[in-house]
């Protein structure tokens, strides 16, 4: 029986416990969404870094015009970087044909936490169906939520539930075994779908509304990035499966 586990924070699961699994890392607002959009816009790869200085040091190994430096700390663009952490910034004009050196407050740390996984994928609403299809035949899948500043955040849980819904199917025909957190995320997502149907909203619109009340969403509203909520909430618009190669340190489409 295939097993699906959701972890609401990296601190909830030792890195060693992810060894041998396919791990889907989620940082809905906004690293996962931005990585997917950057690759879809033609970035040659995304190179995630834990610290700002690590990204800057790596950038010195390149012709500066040949790369893109992107990322944020506490939601805001980093001084001297080209782009922040909004997927809306990552157009083909901005990134096509160049590697993206990328560091964020939460998402790149979650990627590092999955360093012992057999495969590390990046998931969000934008590529929900593609990521579920990529993991459908795996015997074990762990969805790792990045959280916000070390705290559980609702948008990651809803995204985990959305991916779980696409993965296990309405009747759980494949017989997936879910841990308590996976079942909770799935239940919360299906409640959102029911609310969307009752209010006449699309699931994507209802997701954007729900994120206005989550810690990550509230933070973005406070710093004037509310436009990123509907941008990140769009379901199934990118048929891309970003995969991190821990040996090369590069994320490329699988």
UniProtKB/TrEMBL annotation:
Write out the entry's keywords from A to Z: Hydrolase, Magnesium
Q: What is its EC number?
A: 3.1.3.71
Q: What is the required cofactor set for this protein?
A: Mg(2+)
Q: Record's superkingdom?
A: Bacteria
User: Which protein family is it in?
Assistant: Belongs to the ComB family.
Matching entries from InterPro entries are given as:
ComB-like, ComB-like_sf
Gene Ontology molecular-function annotations: 2-phosphosulfolactate phosphatase activity; magnesium ion binding; sulfopyruvate decarboxylase activity
Matching SUPFAM superfamilies, A to Z? Answer: ComB-like
The EC category is: hydrolase
Provide the reaction this enzyme catalyses.
(2R)-O-phospho-3-sulfolactate + H2O = (2R)-3-sulfolactate + phosphate
Protein name per the record: Probable 2-phosphosulfolactate phosphatase
Q: What is a single Pfam family found in this protein's UniProt entry?
A: 2-ph_phosp
Checking Gene3D superfamilies in the record gives: ComB-like
